Amino acid sequence: MYTVTGIPLTRTFRVLWALEELGEPYELHQHGPRSPEVQALNVSGKVPVLQAEGETITDSTAIITYLADKHRALTAPAGTIARAKQDAITHLLLDEIDAVLWAAARHSFILPEEQRVPEVKGSLKWEFGHNLARLESKMSGPFLMGEDFTIADIICTHCLNWARSAKFPVEGEKMQDYGKRMRGREAFQRVAELAR
């Protein structure tokens, strides 16, 4: 049994979705970022936090990579060319999609008000659209890695949903269709119920 600390409206969603796809049991402790309960587990106060095997793991990508490797699912095997390609897409998502959305969030409500630069959001929306179009051009199957659903799809779909709530346009038809299909997955739907 895994213990997940965080709330589904954050990157915690990625961890819960991975666990649902894997069919692994977990207990969810719904505590928000920087809450005393989270800071007791992660000094940065960030969520999600996973407790497993008597250890604490932080960072959503580190957590879902650990889960995928441990359960030998949702990932290409370590040490293979397929895994290197999957890791390349994962890092692209984190550097060029997630990071842009995170910068917009920081300048919207996370940073102290006197440190926010709301004008940067127009530039970030342009960058997001440009980066998403490049990602879309790489897609050659139903999933980011072709025929296999992987943790990269979990990260990408979470970012697409984040973009919708942040009013960042997702314009490409292929990416819109992809997002709809991913949100239709049963494991996604079970986590979406927790977020309501």
TrEMBL record:
Pfam families for this protein: GST_N_2 (PF13409)
Entries under InterPro entries matching the protein: Glutathione-S-Trfase_C-like (IPR010987), Glutathione-S-Trfase_C_sf (IPR036282), Glutathione_S-Trfase (IPR040079), Glutathione_S-Trfase_N (IPR004045), Thioredoxin-like_sf (IPR036249)
UniProt-listed SUPFAM superfamilies: GST C-terminal domain-like (SSF47616), Thioredoxin-like (SSF52833)
Domain GST C-terminal: 79-196
Domain GST N-terminal: 1-75
Domain of life: Bacteria
Protein name according to UniProt: Glutathione S-transferase family protein
